[in-house]
Amino acid sequence: MINLETVKALRALHLPGMARELESQLEDPQNCKSLSFEERLGMMVDAKTLSRRTNTVKRRIKEARVSESTANIEEIEYHEDRHLDEGLITKLVTCSYIRDNHHVVLKGATGAGKSYIANALGIAACRKAVQDTLCAAA
Question: Are 66 and 124 in contact (CB under 8 A)?
Fold first, then answer.
């Protein structure tokens, strides 16, 4: 079957995101029947772009040696006893401090979440770097 050969060829060309999208389209042909060739191809390219971006972020996080790779800025809890400035954290997520060559120093009591916040900022920096790279290429 030519479609399976195409999927294998996409994988051999290191385009697994496109291969997965083509397989998805082949599994449900009725869903794609009304789409033009260009639309279906666009869906495959979008899938590859997303796959590449996700893999790049994962690779950067691994290279950064972030200890808590699941740390997420959005999940920080701003309890009153933690004395966290939500506005400052939101500003740090923009990563402007990196561009301006500034440092971030976290201080607080044991168990206050300093390591978690540091890891979350590192992950945010990895994501921002990938996003900026993609925007510059466009």
Answer: no
